[in-house]
Task: inverse folding
């Protein structure tokens, strides 16, 4: 028992919240750049002042260590806010564009403007980062936001609600706790933008609801992200970086390596080095380590336990029904059709596959839905070029895992079933902005050939428009 009950919001409560935000946005308070900067600065202050409460909530919900929680849930946000504040003036300026030869004398601009009332639906696995990171973009672009945290992390949900309620006008940002019913009420609103992070099935529901009102969306989903270890990789370093990426947050990361393709000649060495990395990170008994997290709830825990029967466990795989923890595990799947190879794992179980030719890997990955991330370990630039040019995926790393998400200079997002749209850094600002196209025409002269009564208009137009 969590000791916290997350109650659903009624349709009337949701209606009132959206109306409040609509009125706040209409007042124009979010549009001045100084107001946006003030909101971002206050957001950073709120995160710093509530650090201990955030760390406790994340420990209560997910058993996150202080180091992991600060790095992935607080520090990454403070860095994003700082980067946004440094660059916001430049991003928000109207951008002059070239004009065509038919528009001599005119000037063209792209002017970013906020959409209005945005809805941010956050997941449970990184419940602070993935609620607030898109909010940074919403603030920077001049929007208001309703933030819907996950009911599966109730301590964090409650802490977020209390933290924002005491710091921000609810017309600017409103943290709305609730479950499925509250989500349904929210998706039944006339909103201006929806930003959703979560599973593919729920993403489809969100997109269907948005389509009924033609609301633009960003969908940050997931899927099965492959990890490829070529024969020439530095096995010790590769294993360490892969173990880090796979086991952070007990594997409950949307961009965690989901399954491994290792060259047959390197399989034995990789497994040996992976075991060493796990012992180095979490000791001989990972389930007793204060650095290793737990599975979010019993349903997901039982789902993950069932995957251990989908093949031969070649390392780890112990579990604790009381703490809802599963030991880091390497597993040889009995076939490509078992659930561990067809469903997103979202846990510390790592299927191991071998290959002889890179074409086998490319064919397998290309035959499945496009992944959110892909990781390749190799020293061969031709192999690197082959994989990056011939496989479609949201983003990823060469010779590392996860770290592409941590730089504000790279947009983050999926493709196909792994998502629509991107954010982080300037991409967050762009995501929450509509770019108006404006042409300013000169009054110093006029082109008569464009009018229907011009004698040689068609002849001139044919010369120009070819």
Result:
């Amino acid at each position: 028992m969590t000791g916290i009950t997350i109650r659903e919001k009624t349709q009337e409560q949701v209606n009132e919240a959206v109306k409040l935000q609509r009125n706040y946005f209409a007042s124009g308070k979010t549009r001045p750049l100084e107001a946006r900067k003030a909101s971002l600065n206050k957001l950073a202050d709120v995160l710093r002042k509530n650090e201990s409460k955030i760390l406790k909530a994340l420990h209560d919900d997910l058993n996150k260590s202080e180091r992991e929680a600060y790095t992935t849930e607080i520090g990454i946000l403070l860095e994003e806010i700082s980067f946004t504040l440094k660059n916001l003036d430049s991003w928000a300026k109207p951008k002059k564009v070239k004009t065509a030869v038919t528009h001599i004398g005119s000037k063209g601009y792209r002017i970013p403007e906020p959409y209005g009332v945005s809805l941010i639906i956050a997941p449970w696995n990184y419940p602070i980062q993935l609620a607030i990171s898109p909010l940074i973009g919403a603030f920077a672009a001049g929007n208001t936001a309703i933030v819907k945290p996950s009911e599966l992390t109730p301590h964090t949900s409650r802490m977020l609600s209390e933290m924002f309620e005491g710091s921000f006008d609810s017309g600017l940002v409103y943290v709305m706790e609730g479950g499925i019913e509250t989500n349904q009420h929210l998706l039944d609103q006339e909103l201006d933008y929806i930003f959703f992070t979560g599973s593919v099935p729920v993403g489809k529901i969100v997109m269907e609801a948005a389509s009924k009102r033609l609301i633009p969306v960003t969908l940050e989903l997931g899927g099965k992200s492959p990890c490829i270890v070529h024969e020439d990789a530095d096995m010790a370093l590769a294993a360490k970086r892969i173990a880090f990426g796979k086991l952070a947050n007990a594997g409950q990361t949307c961009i965690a390596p989901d399954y491994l393709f290792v060259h047959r000649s390197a399989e034995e060495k990789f497994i040996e080095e992976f075991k060493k990395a796990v012992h180095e990170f979490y000791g001989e008994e990972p389930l007793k380590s204060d650095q290793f997290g737990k599975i979010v709830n019993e349903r997901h825990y039982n789902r993950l336990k069932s995957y251990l029967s989908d093949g031969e466990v070649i390392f780890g795989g112990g579990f604790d029904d009381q703490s809802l923890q599963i030991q880091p595990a390497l597993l040889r799947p009995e076939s490509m059709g078992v659930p561990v190879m067809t469903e997103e794992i979202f846990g510390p179980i790592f299927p191991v596959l071998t290959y002889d030719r890179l074409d086998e890997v490319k064919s397998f990955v290309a035959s499945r839905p496009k992944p959110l991330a892909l990781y390749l370990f190799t020293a061969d630039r031709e192999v690197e070029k082959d994989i990056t040019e011939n496989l479609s995926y949201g983003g990823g790393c060469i010779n590392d895992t996860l770290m592409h998400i941590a730089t504000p200079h790279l947009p983050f997002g999926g493709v196909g079933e792994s998502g629509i749209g991107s954010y982080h850094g300037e991409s967050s600002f762009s995501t929450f902005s509509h770019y108006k196209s404006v042409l300013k025409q000169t009054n110093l002269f006029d082109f008569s050939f464009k009018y229907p009564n011009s004698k040689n208009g068609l002849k001139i137009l044919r010369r120009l428009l070819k």
User: Anything to note?
Assistant: The chain has 16 helices and 20 strands. The two ends are 71 Å apart (CA to CA). Residues 11-221+417-438 form a domain with the Aldehyde Dehydrogenase; Chain A, domain 1 fold (CATH 3.40.605.10). The CA atoms of residues 223 and 325 lie 22 Å apart.
